[in-house]
Write a structure and sequence with these properties.
two-stranded antiparallel sheet; alpha/beta; 7-stranded mixed β-sheet
Length: 219
């Protein structure tokens, strides 16, 4: 923990890392979760983990879901995010227990909502998702999963079955002391509006999306 100098010159502690703030029941259309709210003192973001059932400590079915307003709330077909979130929530309920960590501040792979919309406008003109970010002078992917690992540590989770197609999430959790016992694919059938985006994620961002081979007819 670091210290800062107060207004009158006295030292006061400055919190770092994630702090659990509240635990509240959250009934949803998928099932009844516990919404565990956190404050990320390093970035100032408010975070939430949706916990279902008695999760234990080992091999916990887990999803790290990056915030996506357009997909999660508006049902955008530009990406598969909304469907992935719904599938993850259904999966932990079907399994009887699990955790979905919803990561705010991850919009557009970390470039924010307006940055993402600008990138989407460039994609409509023919750039792919990587090219669009670079054309705007923005990072391709600036997400940090340290806060997710901190939340899992607070929940006393030691190892996970990670629902993800992104190898970087696995690498990040392992780097932060969370064992990944298994990677569980979270494959959503593509549509005409997102097939190019998904192929770019596979070819340029190393996402594991083998199901795209079966839909070569989509343009």
């Amino acid at each position: 923990m670091t210290e800062k100098i107060g207004v009158l010159g006295t030292k006061s502690p400055q919190r770092t890392g994630v702090e659990r703030v509240v635990n509240a029941p959250l009934p949803t259309v998928y099932g009844k979760f516990q919404a565990v709210g956190y404050l990320d003192h390093d970035r100032g973001d408010e975070q939430v983990a949706l916990v279902y059932g008695e999760i234990g400590t080992d091999d916990v079915l887990t999803r790290l879901h990056s915030e996506c307003l357009t997909g999660d709330a508006f049902g955008s077909q530009h990406c598969e995010c909304g469907d992935q979130l719904a599938s993850a929530l259904r999966a932990v309920v079907a399994a009887g227990s699990g955790v979905v960590v919803y990561l705010r501040g991850h919009e557009g792979r970390g470039i924010g909502l307006l940055g993402k919309l600008r990138a989407m406008a460039l994609q409509a003109e023919g750039l792919d998702t990587v090219e669009a970010n670079l054309a705007l002078g923005l990072p391709v992917d600036s997400r940090d999963y340290g806060v997710a690992a901190g939340i899992l540590h607070d929940l006393d989770v030691k190892s996970v079955r990670l629902m993800s197609n992104n190898p970087r999430k696995r690498e990040a959790l392992v780097r932060h002391g969370i064992e990944v016992a298994e990677t569980v694919p979270l494959l959503i059938p593509p549509c005409e509006n997102n097939i190019t985006y998904l192929r770019t994620k596979r070819e340029r961002l190393d996402h594991h999306l083998p199901h795209l081979d079966a839909v070569a007819h989509l343009s």
